[in-house]
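Bumping with the actual sequence this time:
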Amino acid sequence: ALRGGEDIGSGFRRDLKLISEVQAPFRGVRRFFYVAFIAAAGISTFFTIPRLIFALQGGDGAPDFLETAGNAAINIGGIVVLVALFFWENKKEEEQITNISRNETLSRLPVRLSTNRITELVQLRDISRPVILAGSKASVTQAMQRAERYRTDLLKRGVLLIPVIFGASLKVQGKPKGFGTTRSAASAPSIGGDFEKRTESIAAKSRLRAEVRFKADIVSPEQWESWIRDQQESEGVTPGEDVYIILRLDGRVRRSGRGMPNWNDILKELPRLEDLLSKLER
């Protein structure tokens, strides 16, 4: 988006806002009511202030001062609270868009499957649950060896191990592709209204599902490390520390933690691919 100019950048932002609206469908409704109530309280205050001045001056026909002051205080207090809620909603939306942007950037990172095919994580959605193991060579290797003991059960849950060893590879030029950019020719075709495109997409998914095994190697390590360090900083973790990240079937981050995962806990947490909970996760 940065390289493509304003048009691509605005399209990127629009796509993120659409995803944000799907994840928080009532935010717009809440903000509408905040604005409506702020306007109502403002109008009420507009008429209350002259009455308050009249009450201060006293005289015949003057309204009760305490009652008028109480009404004005309620209106002003309501405006302050509603304005604070409105800005809080905006802040939450920005945080959500940042998280969505990070997830979509992750989805464009490439991996090499066991068949030597290079694909982006976005193409593995609905097929597997990638588990990213990032850290020192010793920690990642040990975690991979422990995972081998549970290989069969992990495969039934769609787990795909992606080891990322910090500083193990040479830097390569290039930046990760952002959400909303042009897909590469190797990408699976999207499902459209046309029957032939739909058939081709289903066939591509089936071939990809057959190629997915227990482990995938990263392509463009510097991009992976950059994303993981950004994720660590956002979660308050020291960059470069051993971490693991478990993704959902829909590609979003399920959970993450320091160190390497406990495979017994993961087996208890993740449902099998054919279970109802997995179908709801897609």
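The tokens above came from a reply further down the thread. The chain has nine helices and seven strands.
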